[in-house]
Q: What sequence folds into this?
């Protein structure tokens, strides 16, 4: 507490509010108010990154000499180079990677746009991308479209503004126009599509066995005795949904089973929609005895609801799903799936992109298909 300016006592001084932003005091002995001058604040040092100019001033040499020494040039005295490197280390010098990259016309950074980072599948893909990129000396910038076409377009624009050397993209379920991709291709940007691809532009593509996996799942249901198989299809505009639906239809044709449109229900991969689909199927005169979900998440939701309704799985209704994660194996009954390998997909996509970046003059688009495997579990094992 401050001392009174009149009696020099501090024991009877109390705080008494503020006056023009300064602390005001009151002395009970003298019965006077007063304020105190605040000590001048010491100027704060601005923290900034050490530059080659700082090193040059410290040693009394030209900045160009420091630059040549740091870049490993041989046209400089070895003792001078050693001294510059020593001082640079002491001053914690870090090169400006962005400035260096822009000078060379490259940033050694690749951009990634995915629909939803929370999904285990896309998390696995990102891990594979990062693994290959790191080994090749590339950094990774990740954007999430959150299943929005407009956000996806903004993501691409942001990555281009950040001067990425190439782009990896899996489209949102809303995306039906691909002008934002076509525009960058015209500018010469290397682009690789993965999983949710686009056939309207010529790019490298990494896809799943969407048709083959769906055929295998439906074939398995048929071999287990199912004859009325419903399909919880995805967004009708999404290419992977279309392809997986074609695999379902092909399996029915192959085994001579009729195609019943009342058993096909399109969803946006939302839980409420899968339950609406189940209500629809169970209200039919002949309910299904098997269900194929083009996304395993919907299959898990259907399993939970069937159990809640005390419908026996798989004896009354067998369930299978495209895709896999740990919960599909742990749920009771465990879910039969077409298992995917997202980490390997990410590695393959990143390798294609980096190869495209390095050899863009001889680029010729290719499509690589990642193999999956049918994993039969309790939800469909009737026989």
A:
């Amino acid at each position: 507490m401050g001392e009174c300016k009149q009696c020099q006592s501090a024991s009877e001084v109390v705080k008494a509010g503020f006056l023009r932003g300064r602390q005001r005091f009151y002395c009970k002995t003298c019965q006077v108010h007063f304020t105190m001058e605040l000590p001048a604040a010491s100027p704060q040092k601005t923290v900034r990154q050490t530059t080659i100019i700082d090193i040059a001033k410290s040693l009394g040499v030209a900045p160009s000499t420091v630059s040549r020494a740091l870049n490993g040039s041989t046209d400089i005295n070895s003792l001078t180079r050693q001294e510059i490197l020593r001082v640079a280390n002491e001053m914690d010098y870090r090169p400006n990677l962005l400035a260096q990259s822009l000078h060379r016309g490259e940033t050694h950074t690749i951009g990634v746009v995915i629909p939803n980072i929370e999904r285990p599948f896309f998390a696995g893909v990102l891990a594979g991308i990062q693994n290959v990129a790191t080994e090749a000396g590339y950094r990774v910038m990740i954007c999430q479209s959150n299943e929005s076409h407009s956000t996806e377009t903004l993501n691409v624009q942001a990555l281009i503004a950040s001067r990425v050397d190439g782009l990896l993209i899996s489209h949102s379920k809303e995306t039906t126009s691909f002008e934002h991709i076509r525009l960058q291709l015209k500018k010469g940007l290397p682009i690789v599509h993965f999983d949710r691809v686009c056939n309207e532009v010529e790019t490298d593509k990494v896809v799943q066995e969407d048709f083959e996996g769906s055929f295998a799942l439906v074939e398995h249901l048929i071999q287990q005795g199912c004859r009325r198989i419903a399909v919880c299809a995805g967004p009708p505009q999404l290419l992977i949904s279309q392809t997986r639906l074609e695999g379902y239809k092909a399996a029915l044709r192959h085994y001579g089973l009729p195609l019943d449109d009342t058993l096909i229900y399109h969803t946006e991969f939302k839980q409420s929609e899968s339950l609406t689909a189940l209500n629809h199927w169970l209200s039919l005169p002949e309910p299904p005895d098997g269900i194929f979900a083009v996304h395993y998440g919907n299959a898990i939701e259907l399993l939970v609801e069937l159990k809640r309704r005390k419908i026996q799985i798989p004896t009354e209704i067998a369930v299978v799903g495209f895709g896999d994660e740990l919960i599909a194996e742990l749920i009771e009954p465990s879910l039969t799936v077409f298992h995917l390998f997202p980490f390997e997909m990410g590695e393959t996509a990143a390798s294609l992109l980096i190869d495209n970046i390095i050899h863009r003059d001889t680029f010729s688009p290719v499509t690589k298909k990642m193999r999956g495997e049918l994993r039969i579990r309790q939800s469909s094992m009737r026989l």
User: Anything to note?
Assistant: The longest strand covers residues 13-19. The mean pLDDT is 89.
